[in-house]
Fold this sequence. Notes:
Blueprint: E1 6-8, E2 11-13, E3 17-19, H1 29-37, E4 41-45, H2 51-64, E5 68-74, H3 80-89, E6 94-98, H4 103-112, E7 116-120, H5 123-132, E8 137-140, E9 146-147, H6 155-165, E10 170-173, H7 179-187, E11 192-195, H8 197-200, H9 209-217, E12 223-227, E13 233-237, H10 240-248, H11 270-278, H12 302-317
Parallel strand pairs: 3-11, 4-5, 5-6, 6-7, 7-8, 8-10, 10-11
Antiparallel strand pairs: 1-2, 9-13, 12-13
Amino acid sequence: xxxxxxxxxxxxxxxxxxxxxxxxxxxxxxxxxxxxxxxxxxxxxxxxxxxxxxxxxxxxxxxxxxxxxxxxxxxxxxxxxxxxxxxxxxxxxxxxxxxxxxxxxxxxxxxxxxxxxxxxxxxxxxxxxxxxxxxxxxxxxxxxxxxxxxxxxxxxxxxxxxxxxxxxxxxxxxxxxxxxxxxxxxxxxxxxxxxxxxxxxxxxxxxxxxxxxxxxxxxxxxxxxxxxxxxxxxxxxxxxxxxxxxxxxxxxxxxxxxxxxxxxxxxxxxxxxxxxxxxxxxxxxxxxxxxxxxxxxxxxxxxxxxxxxxxxxxxxxxxxxxxx
Length: 324
C-alpha cells in the first residue's frame, strides 16, 4: 500500500510528510525545496531572522521547486507579525506557528488566503484553532525537539483525543522517525506527520557538520530538557553550554541584547546560542533535538530519507507487517 497524500486546504502533498521548521537557519531554502521536490511539505524556519532574509529564502526555494513551501515561525519572536505578513505577501503556500498562540495570525492568513497551521498540544487548543479557522493543526507531543507544549504526554496519548475533537487535518509530530511511525500515526487518524530530527541530520540541512555529528553521536543520556528564555521547556543535546546552564541557572549573553523576543527571561540569549550551535560552536552553542535522536546514525540526502520512509511504511502496512 502506497503512502496517501496530505490535503491542507487547497494544497495536496503527494506524501503526507511535513519537514519541521528548525531555527536558527537550520531549515532554509535548500532543505525546504528538497523536501518539496520529493512530494512533501518543506518549511523555511523564520524565527531568528529578519523579513528580508526570509523573503530571500522564499524566493530561492521557489527557484528550486514547484512543490509546497511554507514557513515555520515562533509566535514568541517580536518580528512575528512582520515575518508572517512578509510571507503572505510573497504568496507562501502555508504558515505554521508554534511557541505561543496568535489569534491575529488567523485573521492575517484568512485575509491573505494562506492556510494557517498552529502547533498545539491539547484538545482545548485544537478546538480553538478549528473555531478560529485553522486549515490543519500540528499535534506535538513530549517526544519533540525544541520548544515543547507538553513534557508529560506522548504524541500517541494525545492523538486519539485530538482526532475525536476536531474535523480538520491533524499532523502528528514528536518522535516520528521511521516509516512504521508514519503508519502508526495514520492508522490512529492523523492525516500526516511532521518530522524535524530526521531532516535536521540531512545533507541539505543548513547546519555545520559538527552540529550534525553531535546529533548522530548523541546517546539517550545526552538528551535533556532545559528552560528556554521564552518561558517554555525545550529539549536539547547536553553541550558544554547546556551543562553550564544547568549548573549555574543562566548563561548571561556577552552580546548586546537586541530584544528579539516579546517576553524574555534574559537568562541567556537563545537566538545567539542556537546560531552558534548551528555554526558548530558546541562549547557556546545550543543544539535542539527530538527525544529519539539517538536512533539516527547517518547523514543522508532528503531523497534517500523519503525513499527509505516510503519503503518502511509499505513494509509496515503489508499483510505481514506490524500494521498490515
